[in-house]
Amino acid sequence: MTEADPPTMTPVPPAAPPSHRHLFLGMLQVALSAFGGGLSAWSQRIVVEQKRWMTNEQFLTGLTVARLFPGPNQINMAVYIGAEFRGLSGALVALAGMLLVPFTLLMGLGLLYFSVHELPAIDRVLAGVVAAAAGMALSMGFKILDQYWKDPMALLLALVVFLALSFTHLRLIPVVLISAPLAMAWYWPRHPQ
Question: Would you give the distance in Å from CA 155 to the centre of its chain?
Fold first, then answer.
């Protein structure tokens, strides 16, 4: 390699499939990392970047599936990740990791909040947390953008949905009910004739 040649990066091999214990602890790490929102960003960072359980493409597939089903996206994502590696028992363990400790903390914080919620400082702190969560969501959007940058149809679908929700103020459910079948039909695997 000469000085003018750029360094080549060797791809990092994926990690071994996680055990039940690692699934629980990984989902617990996701849940405890995401105070104020941004669970998708933290989930991607932990599952793809830190633990290397999935590639970014596999993660995006799971996130798409999770968003198509009713219920909270990250609960669905935890079930997807757990089931992907350990079947039904993995799904239950990942779900427990995502819910047990955070639920207990949430109940305690809820009791504390209702005893001090009238203090002006609390409103300022919560406004800061909301701003941080919005930044994390934008960060995830930019991270996954490179996955779709070479796919004009994906960019067009994303733009149309963004415009429909942001500027025409259409409701989320009709937009999903129209855009999801269109996207699935467009990307449905076709066999060469």
Answer: 19
Report the residue count for the chain. Answer: 193
Q: What span, in angstroms and rounded, lies between the C-alpha atoms of 178 and 155?
A: 17
Query: Is the residue at 31 inside a domain?
Result: yes
Using only C-alpha atoms, the chain has a radius of gyration, in whole angstroms, of: 20
Tokens describing residue 101: 């400790």
Q: Which of 84, 119, 81, 79 is nearest to 99 (CA)?
A: 79
Return the closest-CA partner of residue 94 out of 107, 108, 81, 111.
81
Is 110 in contact with 116 (CB distance < 8 Å)? Answer: no
* Distance (Å, whole) CA 58 – CA 47: 10
Contact 29, 37 (CB under 8 A): no
Q: Is residue 191 part of a domain?
A: no
- Domain limits at 95? 20-116
Instruction: Report if residue 56 sits inside a domain.
Output: yes
> Which residue has tokens 């996955």?
147
Tally of domains within the chain: 1
Residues of the chain with confidence (pLDDT) below 50: 1-2, 9
Q: What is the pLDDT of residues 113-156, one digit of tens each?
A: 888 877 788 778 878 878 887 887 777 777 777 777 788 888 88
Q: Tell me whether residue 137 is in a domain.
A: no
Global model pTM greater than 0.90? no
CB 80, CB 92: distance < 8 Å: no
